[in-house]
Model the fold of this input.
Amino acid sequence: MAKVSVPRESVTQFIVSVDGKTDVDQSVAKFREACMKYVATTEGNDELIETYLGVLYDNFKGASFNHQYICSAVVRLMATSKPELGDPNIFANLSKRIVGIVQAKVKSGEFVSRKGPNGGTARACDQAAAESAVETK
Done:
């Protein structure tokens, strides 16, 4: 087994001392929080975000939502399959990933975004279906 060298600074940034002694539980909690933030912004939650964006829009066909609602709803849905993603400490980081994915979908034409009254972000295919239903009446 190869020896792995970890810079001292990497470890000491997570050490929590209480009365001059290392508090292992608080140190582990501090590391866990940093690790969860890292995972929320960098790792494979994109597929899960995409899945639950689909679920959100499937549940509310034709609806437009603001980004705050999309983030809140998608994180809540994601937490049903991965409870650790419901941690309020990582909500802001997950929200950034969700908004980034939504913006990419707007650029690709999969989603549409409107400002003002009745604005928000909607799935383009739902908007087209809603418009054609109105035209056939």
